[in-house]
Input
Amino acid sequence: MEIQSRIILFLILLGSCTPAETPDQNITDADHIGDIILRKGRLVEWAFNHGRMDTVLADFWKSDSATFILNGRLLEGYSSIMNRFEQANRNKIEIEITKDKVVVLSPASAIHIASFDQRVEDSPDQIINFKGTWTTVYQKINNDWKVVNVHESF
Output
């Protein structure tokens, strides 16, 4: 009877075990998340180049907790961020991402790091060219990837 109990216990334990994820599964998931985030970054690049601030802001988390740090200046809350971008829209802005990568932190969070060249036309006779880097923190909220923090430096 003791041997039968042990065999039954072993079979129950064996049946309750789930197979461990293989490294290839983790890489595939991270690659998939990375592809999603990279596409979002390229959409932001396109939106800047076409004056579509609504598209630039489309993935921002519409919360008072969203943050944007622009050259050391902290903007807190979606409304503040939106107002700043609406002001920037008065100028013609062109951006070219020159190098970027995504670091997947978990199945629900990732960071997009991008270097870019930016051209701002304040007026026909005043054009400013500079290089910059942004880091965008994405979090999966209600099955959507949302921007919860951006840091941009020039």
In short: The CA atoms of residues 92 and 124 lie 10 Å apart.
